[in-house]
UniProtKB/TrEMBL annotation:
GO BP annotations, alphabetical order: regulation of nitrogen utilization
Signal peptide, first to last residue: none
SUPFAM superfamilies assigned: GlnB-like
The species this protein was found in: Pseudothauera nasutitermitis
Protein's name according to its UniProt entry: Transcriptional regulator
Pfam families documented for this protein: P-II
InterPro entries, alphabetized: N-reg_PII (IPR002187), N-reg_PII-like_a/b (IPR011322), N-reg_PII/ATP_PRibTrfase_C (IPR015867)
Record GO terms (molecular function): enzyme regulator activity
Entry coiled-coil feature ranges: none
Amino acid sequence: MSNTHPCKLVVIIAEQALEGPLARDVMALGAHGYTVADVRGWGAHGARSGAWEADKSIRMEILCDEATSLAITRHVEEQYFRHYAMVAFVADVGVLRPQKFVR
């Protein structure tokens, strides 16, 4: 028996310039909060080393219920994917204190 509760983890990796707009969007779409970290890596758009301002990336993580995860991923896909180097994915996770993350 586990003491965790099912939840969705939405992860968005995007250009740092999108942090403000993404933060406003995910909160408006029902998230209770989010965590952001600076990241770097390699992908279809080449290296993102973060060596200069326009080359920096962020990783935004949102713990939420399934409906909110769908709203966020649909919005990001429709509003951002065509114009920005970014990726998003969703994972099933178990959380403690579920009232902090789901409605």
